[in-house]
Amino acid sequence: MVLNRGPYDDPKMMLDEVFIRRLYDFKTTAPQGSIMVDIGANIGAVTQFFARKSPSLSVHAYEPNPDAFSTLQLNLLENGLKTRVTTFANAVGKSQGELSLWVGVNTALSTGYSESSPEQGGRQIKVPMISLDQVFEKLNGQGVWMLKIDTEGAEGDILEGASSSTLASVKNAIVEYHDNIVPGVSERCYRVLKNAGFKWKIFTHPWDEGIIYATR
């Protein structure tokens, strides 16, 4: 496996979280021909993890930060995954529009949900944003085996903006919440997932972040 990095990427953190501590391991293999949607794909570590685990899995990967997106493309190319992963340079939120995204910082911290830069020297750019319903429209009615969301604060808006039919087409979800960026966003995520019929367990970081593992 190759994991390239750009000047603002953090591959050591990705290797640790995804491949060593395996924080995104759902302890199951995708059925033949399954689809995963990766919202906030960054440089592609989680996409690579699931694609390697399930050789017939197809992925739709969304990453709005231009720095991370270029590294994502390179990682998919050098790992032979370009035919199985479709990439989109969109942010995903509650509705279609634009997002003011912080760039020029560690791409793993890039957010549109903070008034100040996550790191010194950051700047904001406008990136195109679509809703989760629009993401799923590109799947032509196919169900999603795994929905992964890691969007540095946007997770509440993404889930709240999704229709009941979109959420009903998801079998499993991994949602990283960021109460340190958007206070109370974890409760908003729990509420949507409960109403959509999911059960879940939680891994909690000590800095008001965590990962929700949801399934039906």
Topology:
Layout: H1 11-20, E1 35-39, H2 45-53, E2 58-62, H3 66-78, E3 85-88, E4 91-93, E5 97-103, E6 123-131, H4 132-137, E7 144-149, H5 155-160, H6 164-168, E8 170-178, H7 185-195, E9 199-204, E10 209-215
Parallel strand pairs: 1-2, 1-7, 2-3, 4-6, 7-8
Antiparallel strand pairs: 5-6, 8-10, 9-10
Tell me briefly what this model is.
The protein is an alpha/beta fold and 216 residues long.
Question: For this structure, what is the CATH homologous superfamily?
Answer: Vaccinia Virus protein VP39
CATH class equals Alpha Beta
* Amount of beta strand: 25-35%
Order of helices and strands: HEHEHEEEEHEHHEHEE
Q: Specify the number of helices.
A: 7
How many DSSP E strands?
A: 10
Whole-number count of domains: 1
Q: Which structural traits does this protein have?
A:
alpha/beta; Rossmann fold; 7 helices; 10 strands; globular
Task: Give a written overview of the molecule.
The chain is an alpha/beta fold and 216 residues long. It has one domain (11-215): 3-Layer(aba) Sandwich (Rossmann fold). Helices cover 28% and strands 28% of the residues. The chain has helices spanning 11-20, 45-53, 66-78, 132-137, 155-160, 164-168, 185-195, and strands at 35-39, 58-62, 85-88, 91-93, 97-103, 123-131, 144-149, 170-178, 199-204, 209-215. Strand 2 (58-62), helix 3 (66-78) and strand 3 (85-88) form a beta-alpha-beta unit. The longest helix is centred in the middle third of the chain and has 13 residues, at 66-78. It is globular. The mean pLDDT is 97.
